[in-house]
């Protein structure tokens, strides 16, 4: 199908069928568990403040401020939960600027779901069940769970929670050829995770990494300890990050503090400062139920399920072909 003089899709007919079957299996999975499918807006007046994420803007005639193509349906879905919805899931398109390449496209398909009364440990059970089914035949070993600290020790021989910034920076320069990363500890840790640790995980199995540094909690709760860690996890298969999950933070004041800290860092780096999502904070203030949520990149799951090496192979059209 891709040979239509430049206008045809990049994905073969077989891969289009595999995508349809994967989406059907996801819906069957949640229907069997009584989880409601919902749909929320792609365009919104606010967006994420995350230092390492860039949103795409759009304009609506007669509106003075830009709207944002959502990087995730998380904020809107939490508003639904606070308004009394049951467990919910969504399959939707999301957008992230500056993300293009073999494993990235600025527009991609996300599966996100929330389970009331779950913590991140219980949600990992469900992630194992879903991904184990979608990747049946591709995983030769049983799933494993390791802490963020254990992952760094296994791959790099360094404790990411105890090592100094200077030690981490020297490691990044020596092993990843990266220098001039600045004085923000999480920037260095993210580089090490993204270029060295993550790619070594999940070989022939599903690896779930949990207990991230407290400074990388984002919208997750913190767990007590020395040092405290985030109630957050990610999943890796064949070195590919497939999902990011949290035992969700329900404290509106703490969430506002994190948003404002993000914006301060963005300001110091000359990055855009999007408006804080006041409706999300109002939902937290009204009472977000105790819940855990996770977002899965379905295009990457389809890559792995079908043995493809590039995200372009499983998309009808990449951003350059649209």
Task: Set out the fold topology.
Blueprint: H1 13-32, E1 36-37, E2 43-44, E3 56-58, E4 67-69, H2 74-82, E5 88-95, E6 107-116, H3 120-134, E7 144-147, H4 148-156, H5 165-176, H6 185-197, E8 206-213, E9 222-223, E10 229-237, E11 240-247, H7 252-268, H8 278-287, E12 291-297, H9 298-306
Parallel strand pairs: 1-5, 7-8
Antiparallel strand pairs: 2-4, 3-4, 5-6, 6-12, 8-10, 9-10, 10-11, 11-12
Biggest pleated sheet: 9 strands, mixed
Q: What is the share of helical residues? A: 25-40%
Shape by Cα distribution: globular
The CATH class turns out to be Alpha Beta
Description of the structure:
The chain has 322 residues and is α+β, with helices and mostly antiparallel strands. The chain has one domain: 2-Layer Sandwich (BirA Bifunctional Protein, domain 2). Helix content is 35%, strand content 20%. Strands 1, 5, 6, 7, 8, 9, 10, 11 and 12 form a nine-stranded mixed sheet that branches. Strands 2-4-3 form a three-stranded antiparallel sheet, with no helix packed on it. β3 and β4 form a beta hairpin. The chain is globular and about 50 Å long. The mean pLDDT is 94.
State the main characteristics.
9 helices, alpha+beta, single chain, 35% helix, globular, BirA Bifunctional Protein, domain 2, 322 residues, 12 strands, three-stranded antiparallel beta sheet
């Amino acid at each position: 199908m891709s040979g239509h003089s430049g206008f045809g899709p990049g994905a073969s007919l077989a891969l289009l069928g595999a995508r349809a079957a994967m989406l059907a299996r996801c819906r069957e999975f949640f229907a069997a568990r009584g989880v409601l499918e919902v749909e929320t807006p792609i365009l919104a007046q606010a967006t994420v403040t995350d230092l390492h994420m860039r949103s795409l803007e759009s304009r609506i005639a007669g509106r003075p401020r830009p709207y944002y193509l959502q990087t995730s349906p998380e904020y809107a879905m939490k508003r639904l939960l606070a308004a009394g919805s049951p467990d919910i899931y969504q399959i939707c398109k999301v957008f992230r600027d500056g993300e293009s390449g073999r494993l990235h496209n600025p527009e991609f398909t996300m599966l996100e779901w929330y389970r009331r009364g779950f913590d991140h440990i219980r949600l990992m059970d469900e992630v194992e069940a879903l991904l184990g089914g979608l990747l049946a035949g591709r995983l030769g070993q049983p799933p494993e769970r390791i802490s963020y600290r254990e992952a760094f020790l296994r791959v790099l021989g360094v404790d990411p929670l105890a090592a100094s910034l200077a030690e981490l920076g020297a490691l990044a320069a020596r092993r990843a050829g990266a220098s001039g990363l600045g004085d923000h500890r999480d920037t260095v840790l993210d580089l090490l995770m993204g270029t060295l640790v993550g790619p070594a995980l999940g070989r022939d199995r599903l690896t779930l990494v949990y207990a991230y540094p407290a400074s990388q909690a984002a919208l997750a709760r913190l767990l007590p300890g020395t040092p405290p860690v985030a109630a957050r996890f990610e999943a890796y298969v064949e070195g590919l990050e497939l999902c990011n999950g949290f035992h969700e933070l329900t404290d509106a004041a703490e969430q506002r503090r994190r948003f404002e800290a993000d914006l301060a860092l963005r300001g110091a780096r000359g990055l855009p400062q999007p408006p804080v999502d006041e409706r999300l904070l109002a939902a937290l203030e009204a009472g977000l139920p105790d819940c855990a949520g996770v977002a899965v990149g379905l295009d990457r799951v389809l890559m792995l399920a079908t043995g493809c090496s590039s995200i372009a192979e499983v998309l009808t059209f990449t951003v350059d072909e649209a």
